[in-house]
TrEMBL record:
<keyword id="KW-0472">Membrane</keyword>
<dbReference type="InterPro" id="IPR037239">
    <property type="entry name" value="OSBP_sf"/>
</dbReference>
<feature type="region of interest" description="Disordered">
    <location>
        <begin position="652"/>
        <end position="715"/>
    </location>
</feature>
<feature type="compositionally biased region" description="Polar residues">
    <location>
        <begin position="260"/>
        <end position="269"/>
    </location>
</feature>
<dbReference type="GO" id="GO:0006869">
    <property type="term" value="P:lipid transport"/>
</dbReference>
<protein>
    <recommendedName>
        <fullName>Oxysterol-binding protein</fullName>
    </recommendedName>
</protein>
<dbReference type="GO" id="GO:0032934">
    <property type="term" value="F:sterol binding"/>
</dbReference>
<keyword id="KW-0446">Lipid-binding</keyword>
<dbReference type="GO" id="GO:0016020">
    <property type="term" value="C:membrane"/>
</dbReference>
<dbReference type="InterPro" id="IPR018494">
    <property type="entry name" value="Oxysterol-bd_CS"/>
</dbReference>
<keyword id="KW-0445">Lipid transport</keyword>
<dbReference type="InterPro" id="IPR001849">
    <property type="entry name" value="PH_domain"/>
</dbReference>
<keyword id="KW-0175">Coiled coil</keyword>
<comment type="similarity">
    <text>Belongs to the OSBP family.</text>
</comment>
<keyword id="KW-0597">Phosphoprotein</keyword>
<feature type="region of interest" description="Disordered">
    <location>
        <begin position="113"/>
        <end position="138"/>
    </location>
</feature>
<keyword id="KW-0813">Transport</keyword>
Length: 757
């Protein structure tokens, strides 16, 4: 760690800065932070770049206690509300900080003692003081009411105990009397019931006693915590007021400097227009991205691109070209739209029947499991959503316009940004979708023909059942092809289920001949047993351009209760084949993605988890790549389907007889007839097992030397529209579309399709 570049410790009126290690939690331990001591306040930031916009914490030294633990460690606390465990790099450095802190504390204490009103913490203005007083009165009234209720509960506790004991004594005396016949039997019944009442009352008394003990123990602690929060709020208001003044001062200073630079540039650059563009570019530099897990982005130095007039003009023209390429995308779409508008388009549906509110009877499921093998237990449709996995796979094309823009891009690195955004956008539909898609039957297909609306056609087929594998092929008139084969592996880990998609996704662009590949990250479904289901995406993706060698490394940060970052965060860096960074990506997989051009990069900042220094990127202002479309009205009653998902199961004429739209159990579930759907689902699964046994018999007759076991794929089954081959890029054994489907659809010839429904 570098030594803090600060002067000799001075009184609190001056500023003292430097790097100090701060204890964060038991997972990360001590982390290096940038501390600033000024005007009796000790503030800290993750990096020096954050001083202009994000303060991570502030402690008032006027009421703080400074304790030295050992040669390098010391602690600062202000009565329990805030505690900083700090560690200096050496004993000399620790002593410098202790001296500066003690001086600052002494001066802050003198200033507080000399104030006219002892309640200065609540007197920034008259109105806040009155508001705090009224809130305090309401709090005291609520506490008095709660106290009276606790007293009433204590009294009732004593009365129940007293009367219960008296009743038990009376019954015991009555039981000792010598009685015969029916009277004795009645007395015994009353005694038994009284005993049960005593047991129940004792349990309630014990619970009430525990509650009273906890309430009395924590009451004072809650009062202190509330008072500390109120004081903290006042200190934050003061800090915000100071920050607002500083921001106003910096803004005025920046405007003055910008005007001076504009007048200077107008002399060296021909034409006043170029000087104005340069100033606008300067403004862009002062928008920095938030710190990412593996790198840090800070605003680029305005002097970076002012070395010469030629550099300025070329740099500005490059930015103008980028802006033009981004802004002209809708214009290019509009130029193609007139020819499309001449043909009437099919009106797609915007609603499906609402999801029925059926309660799930676990006992009915368990009854069906008695005496059956685990692989043959039918899972009810209550856990499903009314689309198949093939339709779910086709839903990756929700934001196909990202690939359209990538196909029109002339820069391979900019094209990489669009492809990376498309990778992330595929997960935006999963944030609320906790239902399980239907497992496709072997040979089941699904077509998504949007050629007239959006220029692309998509075909999926279930090519294997054990293990389940689906092949997908999509081609667009706008110059791109997407293909993939996905096999899903899952692991149940008690509280959550991890779903790991296996397989590689390929995107090929005709104009540039660029070939991209990437894989999917792990999907985790939490609260499987108890609680509300929620989904998280975590892992890393490497998007590789095999034509140019460009690479984009994306990181999906897993959700952490202790993390201060925004939830569902995604970060990435676009690099060329030499490893030089050109763009930084940032955003969330459920909302939006942005990209920033990298101007400079350097090693520095906070050390990573593996002891390596993070890379600091100086970037231009971020531009939006992708934003999630809003959900349709009433989506919460329609399985949280997107506008595209609502149309996936819409009936269409001319599709193959194996299409998922024709699957009867799925259609019955969509219509809300779940009991019939469960029965139909069981029939289809049994029919699939019968067809499998028939194929085993045929394979056994053809090759008597080979044997088959349950769950092992058979070589005699071949997919109808995809052929098994070896991928030339990855070397994996995959299924690739061999053609013929759309021609068969045009001719209406489906003779070779199996009967699976």
């Amino acid at each position: 760690m570098s030594e803090p570049k600060a002067p000799t410790p001075t009184p609190a009126g001056d500023t003292y800065k430097g790097w100090v290690f701060k204890w964060t939690n038991y997972i990360k331990g001590y982390q290096r932070r940038w501390f600033v001591l000024s005007n009796g306040l000790l503030s800290y930031y993750r990096t020096q770049a954050e001083m202009g916009h994000t303060c991570r914490g502030t402690i008032n030294l006027a009421t703080a206690t400074i304790t030295v633990d050992d040669a390098c460690n010391f602690m600062i606390t202000n009565g329990g509300a805030q505690t900083y465990h700090l560690k200096a790099s050496c004993e000399v450095e620790r002593q410098k900080w202790i001296t500066a802190l003690e001086l600052a504390k002494a001066k802050a204490a003198r200033m507080q003692a000399e104030s006219d009103d002892s309640g200065d913490d609540f007197s920034p203005s008259a109105a806040p003081g009155q508001g705090a007083g009224s809130q305090n009165a309401e709090f005291q009234s609520a506490m008095r009411m709660l106290g009276s209720k606790v007293e009433d509960l204590s009294t009732c506790n004593d009365l129940i105990s007293k009367h219960g004991s008296a009743l038990q004594r009376s019954l015991s005396e009555l039981d000792n009397l010598t009685l015969t016949g029916e009277a004795g039997e009645k007395i015994r019944q009353v005694t038994e019931r009284a005993t049960l009442f005593r047991i129940t009352s004792n349990a309630m008394i014990n619970a009430c006693r525990d509650f009273l003990s906890m309430a009395q123990t924590h009451s004072k602690r809650w009062q202190k915590a509330l008072q500390a929060e109120r004081e903290q709020r006042v200190r934050l208001e003061e800090t915000l007021e100071q920050l607002a003044k500083q921001h106003n001062h910096l803004e005025r200073a920046f405007r003055g400097a910008a005007q001076a630079n504009a007048s200077a540039d107008s002399k060296s650059i021909s034409g006043p227009g170029k000087g104005e563009v340069s100033d606008d570019d300067d403004n862009e530099f002062f928008d920095a991205m938030e710190e990412a897990p593996e790198f840090i982005t800070v605003p680029a130095d305005p002097q970076f691109h002012k070395r010469s007039s030629s550099n300025v003009s070329s740099f500005n023209s490059e930015i103008c070209q980028d802006d033009q390429s981004l802004n002209e995308e809708p214009l290019a779409m509009n130029q193609e739209s007139p020819s499309q508008e001449l043909v009437p388009l099919k009106k797609r549906r915007t609603r499906i029947p609402d999801k029925p509110n059926y309660s799930l009877n676990l006992w009915s499921i368990m009854k069906n499991c008695i005496g059956k093998e685990l692989s043959k237990i039918p899972m009810p449709v209550n856990f499903n959503e009314p689309i198949s996995m093939l339709q779910r796979l086709s839903e990756d094309l929700e934001y196909h316009e990202l690939l359209d823009k990538a196909a029109k891009s002339h820069n391979s690195l900019e094209q990489m940004c669009y492809v990376a955004a498309f990778c992330v956008s595929a997960y935006s539909t999963t944030v609320y979708r906790t239902g399980k898609p239907f497992n496709p039957l072997l040979g089941e297909t699904y077509e998504l023909d949007r050629q007239r609306e959006s220029g692309y056609r998509s075909l999926c087929e279930q090519v294997s059942h054990h293990p389940p594998a689906a092949a997908h092929h999509a081609i667009s008139d706008r110059g791109w092809t997407l293909r993939q084969e996905i096999t899903v592996a899952s692991k149940f880990r008690g509280k959550y289920l991890s779903i790991m998609p296996l397989g590689t996704i390929h995107a090929i662009f005709e104009k540039s001949n660029n070939h991209y590949t990437w894989k999917k990250v792990t999907t985790t479904v939490h609260n499987i047993i108890v609680g509300k289901l929620w989904i998280d995406q975590s892992g890393e993706i490497d998007v590789v351009n095999h034509t140019t060698g460009d690479r984009c490394h994306l990181k999906f940060a897993p959700y952490s209760y202790f993390s201060r970052d925004v939830a569902r965060k995604v970060t990435g860096v676009v690099m060329d084949k030499t490893g030089k960074a050109h763009y930084v990506l940032s955003g969330t997989w459920d909302e939006k993605m942005e990209f920033s051009r990298v101007m400079q990069s350097s090693r520095g900042g906070e050390n990573g988890t593996e002891g390596r220094q993070k890379t600091v990127y100086q970037t231009l202002k971020a531009k939006e790549l992708w934003r999630r479309n809003p959900l349709p009205d009433g989506a919460e009653t329609m399985y949280y389907f997107t506008a595209l998902a609502l149309t996936l199961n819409e009936p269409e004429e001319g599709v193959a007889p194996t299409d998922s739209r024709l699957r009867p159990d799925q259609r019955l579930m969509e219509d809300g007839r779940w009991d019939e759907a469960n029965a139909e689902k069981q029939r289809l699964e049994e029919k699939q097992r019968t067809a499998r046994r028939e194929r085993e018999r045929e394979a056994l007759n053809q090759r008597s030397s080979s044997t088959s076991e349950e769950g092992v794929p058979h070589e005699n089954y071949k997919a109808r529209w995809f052929e098994h081959t070896e991928d030339k890029i990855t070397g994996e054994a995959v299924h690739v579309y061999k053609g013929g489907y759309w021609e068969a659809k045009d001719q209406g010839k489906w003779d070779d399709c199996p009967d699976i429904f």
